[in-house]
C-alpha cells in the first residue's frame, strides 16, 4: 500500500485512486470505534467498485496547538498504515497539519483537498468530525458541501462497547497509563504495540543472565512503568515471546531515562539498529527497587515463568491482532 504525503507529492494522485471512497480522521489507535468508520468506507467502496483511501493528519493537531504537551500517540504512523492496509485500504493520505493549515476555511478544505487533490466520490467520517478555521465545518456543512460538489457523505455514530461506553482513544490511553493492557486490547481489537530502533544500553542484563533488547520510547509515552508479558517482532518479521520491563531501573540506575528492556525467549543474536516492535499481552507487576542484584534476579526468574505461562495460551483477537502481534 502507498502512503502519500501531500507536501512531497504535489501533483494529482494516481488515476487508479481517483473517484475513491475516503475515510477521514486521525485514527490514532485504529481502535474499534475507528474501525466502525473504516469498515463503513470499505463496504461502500466495495458496493460501488471504487478504491478506498484514508485521510489522516500528521502531527496530531493537539500536539501542534500545545507543543509543550505532545499527545501520547497510540499508533506511530507506519504501524497505522500497516493496520489500514490489512483492513483493505488502497492508500493512506498523510496531510501535514500546522497552524497555517488550521487557519484555512472549511470551504477551502473541501475544494483544495477533497475535490482538487483527491477527487473524492464519497466521504465517510465520524458524526462529530469538524474541520476548517475555528472548527467551522461540521456534519451539516459537510453534507451540504457534498450536495454542492457532487460527492456522497456518510456520518457514523459513536461506537460503544459491550457496556454501552463510547470507545475512544482517550479511554485507551487511560487504560495503558494504568498498565491495563488487556482491557486496552479489548478496545483496540489488537494488542497495544510500540515500535522503535534497538539501541545500546549498559549491557548489565547479559552479565546476570538476562540480555535485553533496549528501546527508547517517546517521552510522551503514557505506558505505566512495570513488567509485562510481550511479543517481540524483529525487523525481518520473526516473532519471539518475551518479558519486558518499562521504566527507570531503580535497582541499578539513579535518575535514568525511561527505557523499554525486552528479554527475548529462545533467542541469541545482534538486534542493534533494527527497527522492532513490542506487543503487550499482560501486566505482571509494578517496577520495584530491590536490595541488590540477587533478589532482583530471583524476581526476574519468576517474571519469566509467569510470562511464559501467560503467552502459552494467547490467541489472536482478530485480523488486526495477527498483523500487530502474531
Q: Any idea of the CATH class of the largest domain?
A: Alpha Beta
Strand order of the largest sheet: 1-4-3-2-5-6
Largest sheet: 6 strands, parallel
N/C terminus separation: 20 Å
User: What fraction strand?
Assistant: 15-25%
Number of domains: 2
Radius of gyration: 22 Å
> Would you count the extended β strands for me?
12
Helical segment count: 11
Shape: elongated
What is the name of the CATH topology of the largest domain? Answer: Rossmann fold
- At the fourth level of CATH, the homologous superfamily of the largest domain is HUPs
Task: Summarize the structure in words.
There is one protein chain. The protein has 326 residues and is of the alpha/beta class. The chain folds into two domains: 2-156, 3-Layer(aba) Sandwich (Rossmann fold), CATH 3.40.50.620; 191-325, Riboflavin kinase-like (Elongation Factor Tu (Ef-tu), domain 3), CATH 2.40.30.30. The protein is built from eleven helices and twelve strands. It has helices spanning 32-48, 61-65, 77-87, 99-102, 106-118, 139-149, 169-177, 181-188, 204-207, 293-311, 319-325, and strands spanning 2-5, 21-24, 52-58, 91-96, 122-126, 152-156, 193-197, 213-215, 226-233, 239-247, 259-264, 275-286. The strands form two sheets. The chain has a six-stranded parallel sheet, sandwiched between helices. Strand 9 and strand 10 (239-247) form a beta hairpin. Helix 3 packs antiparallel against helix 11 and helix 5 (106-118) packs across helix 6.
